[in-house]
Amino acid sequence: MEKSGLWQQLPSVQHGHLLRLPPVWSFGALPSAQRFARELTSALNAQGAH
User: Fold this and answer.
1) What are the tens digits of pLDDT across the range 11-45?
2) 8 Å CB contact between 19 and 43
3) Residue by residue, what is the 3-state secondary structure of the chain?
4) Distances from the Cα of 11 to the Cαs of 4, 7, 40, in angstroms?
5) In a designed cystine with 19, which of 13, 38, 42, 43 is the match (CB 3.0 to 4.6 A)?
6) Stated pTM of the model
């Protein structure tokens, strides 16, 4: 995805406003959704602390 022309044209990508999250199993139903929410919240909080 990093080499995709479309991806490279996204304004947030061009400005370096990206969050990297660890992989989350997408077929795990509610536990996967909860883990994704925890990871996203943690990354957003860490970004706000900088």
Assistant:
1) 988 998 888 899 998 898 999 999 999 999 999 99
2) yes
3) CCCCHHHHHCHHHHCCCCCCCCCCCCCCHHHHHHHHHHHHHHHHHHHHHC
4) 14, 9, 20
5) 43
6) 0.69
